[in-house]
Design brief:
Elements lengths: L3 E4 L2 E3 L5 E7 L8 E7 L6 E7 L4 E3 L7 E6 L4 E6 L8 E7 L3 E2 L3 E5 L2
Parallel strand pairs: 2-11
Antiparallel strand pairs: 1-3, 3-8, 4-5, 4-9, 5-6, 7-8, 9-10, 9-11
């Protein structure tokens, strides 16, 4: 069993920044893959960014150049730095690790 707890969501104006964190119940170095997904009402969860244990990252086209996924070794968290936020980034963001472990989600709202 793995517990994941996201934090860092909130309300931000367009063009602003947020950093999401995902705290895991065991060492983040034990996971060969970690990812952030997001979901809007009436739609499925879409991958936003992923990170493998050898450091490879992958981003959805819609967030490339604006979002950065990285691990914080000191705090044992997976993070998502989100810059230049747009209203279309509004969603619930979820942390994911194999096999099928999800956090409870954190709401991000981008609005003026």
């Amino acid at each position: 069993q793995v517990q994941l707890v996201e934090s860092g969501g909130g309300l931000v104006q367009p063009g602003g920044s947020l950093r999401l964190s995902c705290a895991a119940s065991r060492s983040i170095f034990s996971f060969n893959f970690m990812a952030w997904y997001r979901q809007t009402p009436g739609k499925g969860r879409d991958v936003v960014a992923s990170l493998t244990d050898d450091g490879r990252t992958n981003y959805a086209d819609s967030v490339k150049g604006r979002f950065t996924i990285f691990k914080d070794n000191a705090n044992n968290t997976l993070n998502l730095q989100m810059n230049s936020l747009k209203p279309e980034d509004t969603a619930i963001y979820y942390c994911y690790v194999p096999e099928n472990y999800w956090g409870q989600g954190t709401q991000v709202t981008v609005s003026s």
